[in-house]
Amino acid sequence: MSSTDGEDAMRTMTDKATYDRLQKDVDTVKNDMSALADQITDVLDAFTGSARKQARRSYKQARSNVDSMMSDIGQRGSEALDAAQEAAGTLEESLEDAIVERPLAAVGLALGLGFLIGVTWRR
Fold this sequence. Notes:
The structure is a single chain. The chain is mainly alpha-helical. The protein has one domain (3-122). Helices cover 92% and strands 0% of the residues. It has three helices and no strands. α1 packs antiparallel against α2 and α2 packs across α3 (103-122). The two termini are 21 Å apart. The model has no long low-confidence stretch (mean pLDDT 78).
């Protein structure tokens, strides 16, 4: 076993946390989109008679909300990606430092993790 197995395991854990965070953001966006769809439906219902002015204002507000939300989504996605890249870089540096400082312990840890993974996969 090489030291890359430990690195891969740590990256997988980091990727899982990042995935969970991104999934939560996606769920929030879905809820926001549903609310915006409801707003647009309300706008279309209001397009009768004297309510046209109000509907236009509501449409503009909904459009503004969509634009704002899309900007926010882009920013959140960029921030999440930056955080994931930074975490992966930090994790890699920490792992590399630990391996350089204690090579025998790192080899022992890699062998132990490999054994545990092998035993788990046999079942």
